[in-house]
Write a structure and sequence with these properties.
Keywords: Metal-binding, Zinc. The chain is mainly beta. The chain has two helices and nine strands; from the N terminus they run ββααβββββββ.
């Protein structure tokens, strides 16, 4: 019989590689989905780091999600957005849309589409991700 360099088909292990729509640079601290490790946000996009006035709002309001504490981000990657609906949150009435991980479809938080109170307008177009759904990646020591 002729020798083959390839293993028999039953011995070949197939693995499904994960591909995300966007990868954040490895040189920055990032947040990823705790369920599938898809990149979600760069630490530089955390609102509390972007503007001291907004940082004070952040500290005073201590963002809360349905599963506990949450972070407010300027922008995120690898998330899908559901339809907007009006919800009464701790800070008043807002139009929000749930956001979910594009890779594993887990609901992560929401996007502020519209704030009805003028003091909350800074949240429009921003994203809440609950800490229960995030893990820190790259450069956190």
């Amino acid at each position: 019989p002729e020798l083959s360099e390839e293993p028999p088909a039953e011995m070949v292990k197939m693995t499904k590689s994960k591909t995300f729509q966007a990868y954040l640079p490895n040189c920055h601290r990032t947040y990823s989905c705790i369920h599938c490790r898809a990149h979600l946000a760069n630490h530089d996009e955390l609102i509390s780091k972007a503007n001291f006035k907004i940082f004070l709002f952040f500290l005073m309001q201590s963002f809360q999600g349905s599963q506990g504490r949450a972070y407010l981000f300027n922008s995120v990657v690898n998330v899908g957005c559901g339809p907007a609906e009006e919800r009464v949150l701790l800070t008043g009435l807002h139009a929000v849309a749930d956001i979910y991980c594009e890779n594993c479809k887990t609901t992560l938080g929401w996007k502020y589409e519209h704030a009805f109170e003028s003091s909350q307008k800074y949240k429009e177009g921003k994203f809440i991700i609950e800490l229960a759904h995030m893990i820190k990646d790259n450069g956190w020591e």
